[in-house]
Amino acid sequence: MPAQSIWTLLSWGPDGWSDDIASGVLVTIVLALATLPIGLTIGFFVAFAKQHEEPSLRLAANIYTTVFRGLPELVTLFLFFFGMPLLLQYVVRLFNPNATIDVNSFIAGMIVLSLIFSSYASEVFLSAFRAIPKGQYEGGYAIGLSKWQTMRLIILPQLIRIAFPGLENCWLSLLKDTSLVSVVNLAETLRQSGVAARVTKHAFLFYSVAALIFLALAILSSIGTSYILRYIGRREAR
Amino acid sequence: MSVSQAVVVDKPPPLARGWPRARIVGYSLVGVWMLFGLGIVAYLIYAWNPEFFARYAPAYLQGLGTTLSLVSISMVLGAIFSLPVAYGRMSRNRILSGLAYCYVYFFRGTPLLVQTYLVYYGVGSFRPELETVGLWWFFREAFYCGVFAFSLNTAAYQAEILRGAIESVPRGQWEGAASLGLHTLQTLRKVVLPQAIIVALRPYGNELILMIKASAIVAIITVYDLMGNAKLAYAKSFDIQAYIWVAIVYLVMVEILRHGVEWIERRITIHLHR
């Protein structure tokens, strides 16, 4: 094989690897964006349960965060990726003895990342809940709003504003954690770069490319969040 | 009509201990967790396999040793290397602080997995060059590569922790010490650091926990740490309990550390509580 110049390797098309890596970047972004709303929702409800006056709710939520913050991400991922099919298969075989189950690595990654993201986000939401004075709730009830309305119209807008910087950190670590899903063969950025590295024997080049892509995604999201932050700030000023 | 009516104020009735919705939900969620835990215990008892245990328990112990030594070496090396980085971050020299900023940004902005690959596969691909420099023995071993990548990574995080802690000490403390005639090093050792440690303890503890959790990824570059041995056991036996056991070990380790850090924090802030 004639030695190719690195510019050929990085070009777009059959000789280069840019198109393959770009498809991987797309998978990374889609995975992170698909995880975000699920993780935020679960995280919000876990934080809500953690500051509830009912002790059993608090206990359940605390077990949740202890488990998913205590387990290494990789262990959670492997447990789900290998354990979930066994469990599902066991359940499904009760009805249909010949069924086989395969778990899609994208879905497995999405579930695991949501669990991890939500347990970290719940801590952020919890401290935001604690920063909102009790009078806000009481004021809401005093003007006749129901519990749900108070939450939606009075607490939530303040909560988001307070929690936003913390959630930004959670988002950045989510973005980095997506690289772990490459281990279960999801064709995202790191996986595609790894394939390119193995085929072309230019490991340093392609792993540097992967690192720079993650760096670029981090920079892009901090630009994005600063826009959102400015928008939130303007709403507040009005 | 008499105006002076005795106003009798009753105590509000005690709150009804009925079954409001939150309690039903809470009890059922706790119930789900209990079922889940019992399910795992039942599975481990049902799948109890003395042969599996005899075969892999020593490997797990050895793996635990590898994990702990990897994490402790990286933490110590990272702590040493974080000193110049933190100094650079706080320096007024543009070039120095710019370099330190780029270092920190790179290592905090890219996944640790990518950094580990970059060291093990990336740097390792320059074998002839490394052999001439005489460093090949280092980059050949996956364990050393793991230590190298982890130290650089944690140095970036620890530098930020250190900087935050030192900057949290008010300027007046420096000025006061200077007016007493202490020089910079004395000020740092006797005045600033004792106050900074209280601020830094919790982040340092979190960083240690994060490192223990992150150390599982060296299993992917063929280091037989705790996770690596679990992978091996699973590949040989196709028995999911390989991962369940390792999850329990990690969880216990992290919980012990977390409570340990909380205990130390209570001890060293005892003068702040009244």
3D architecture notes:
The complex is a heterodimer of chains A (about 240) and B (about 270). By secondary structure, chain A is mainly alpha-helical. Chain A has a single domain, classed as MetI-like fold (Orthogonal Bundle), CATH 1.10.3720. In chain A, about 80% of the residues lie in helices and about 0% in strands. Chain A contains 9 helices and no strands. The radius of gyration of chain A is 22 Å and the shape is flat. Chain B is mainly α and about 270 residues long. Chain B has one domain: MetI-like (MetI-like fold, Orthogonal Bundle). In chain B, about 80% of the residues lie in helices and about 0% in strands. Chain B is built from 11 helices and no strands. Chain B has helices at about 20-45, 50-90, 95-110, 110-120, 125-135, 135-140, 140-170, 170-180, 185-215, 225-235, 240-270. In chain B, α2 runs antiparallel to α3 and α3 crosses α7 (about 140-170). The longest helix of chain B is centred in the N-terminal third of the chain and has 41 residues, at about 50-90. Chain B is flat. The model of chain B has no long low-confidence stretch (mean pLDDT about 90).
Gyration radius of chain B, rounded: 27 Å
Structural class of chain A: mainly alpha
Alpha carbon gap, first and last residue of chain B: 55 Å
Order of helices and strands of chain A: HHHHHHHHH
- The span between the termini of chain A is 66 Å
The mean pLDDT of chain B is 90
Descriptive labels:
heterodimer; A: 238 residues; mainly alpha; MetI-like fold; 9 helices; 79% helix; flat; B: 274 residues; 11 helices; 0% strand
Walk me through the topology.
The complex is a heterodimer of chains A (238) and B (274).
Chain A: H1 6-9, H2 18-50, H3 55-70, H4 73-93, H5 105-131, H6 134-142, H7 147-177, H8 189-200, H9 203-237
Helix pairs in contact in A: 2-3, 2-5, 2-8, 3-5, 4-5, 5-7, 6-7, 7-9, 8-9
Chain B: H1 21-46, H2 50-90, H3 94-109, H4 112-122, H5 127-133, H6 136-140, H7 142-168, H8 171-179, H9 184-214, H10 226-237, H11 241-268
